Amino acid sequence: MNRFMISILAVIAAVGIMIAASPFYTVSEVEQVIVTQFGQPVGNPVTTAGLKLKLPLIQDVNRIDRRILEWDGNPSDMPTKDKLYVAVDLFARWRITDPLQYFLRLRDERSAQSRLDDILGSETRNAVAKHELIEIVRTTKDRVPLRDALLTNSKIDLGSLVPIQKGRKLVEREIFTAAAEKVRVFGIELLDIRFKRINYNESVRPKIYDRMISERRQIAERFLSEGNGEAARIRGNRLRDLNKIQSEAYRQVEEIRGVADAKATEIYASAYNQSPQAVEFYEFTRTVQSYKSIISANTTLVLSTDSDLFKFLKGMAPNGPGISTRPSPTTDDGPQKNISGNVPSQKTVPAE
Length: 352
Fold this sequence. Notes:
The chain is an alpha+beta fold and 352 residues long. The chain is built from 7 helices and 14 strands. It has helices spanning 2-21, 99-105, 109-129, 133-137, 168-183, 205-272, 276-294, and strands spanning 24-27, 31-37, 40-41, 50-53, 59-65, 69-72, 76-79, 85-96, 188-200, 300-301, 324-325, 330-331, 334-335, 347-350. The protein is rod-shaped, with a radius of gyration of 59 Å.
């Protein structure tokens, strides 16, 4: 019996402690509380942190986050004003400013996210449909396209950016202004929205990529043609400079050679004109040198007796080696003449 009584007293004590503690609850710095009695809000929202008091058993505590919350919508396909279907991915930041209105209209964050999906998705679709794609993609109106430093002096026209009227920031502002008014009735303050990603629809993406490839190929062909023209110009200049150098070198060589020949002739003249014997010796040596170039192994010459080539052979023996005499052929007009018109000699000299 003693043990049974002790157990009953322990249970009663535990229940008493729970009843005594149930009127107290705490509120942290990152939340706000709505106290409800039988499901209906009672009093004002509790927005200050600390230990609070409520009626036990009949009142409940509903905690609501007071921090900045995020909304991240799913990408959805929507048409632009220029009839291009794009997949738009949007995100936003919001917070609860009127917890009582929020609790009465939405109850929890899950319902709030669903309502934001409807409102922001609808306003985004309306804004995208009223603007062309370039207005949603571009940010600034006066943007200047970047050009590589190597192309600064290039004559190739790479095109220019299409002019815009508003730009992405103003389109985002339009969506924000329209959506902020609609979510305010739910006790929500919309803080900011941004486009996270804008992609072409899967059906038109290959065509867009093909067009981009074609444009880049045209630019590459322009570069290639300009490079070929520059290469042809460089090769032409190289050949022109080479011919100029060669002609100039040939002229200098001929000038040097002429000066050398003149100098050699002057030296020969001064050497062989010193005495009559020197002149005769020069004539003899030059005639002997001419024999080597005129007479070969099977050459037969018909010479006049007063020929310069024959005068050094006159003193040789008639029957000496390499010399033979025979009558010169005659014609009805007399002895045959050579090309110079002289009477041919009666002697012939066959060369060995």
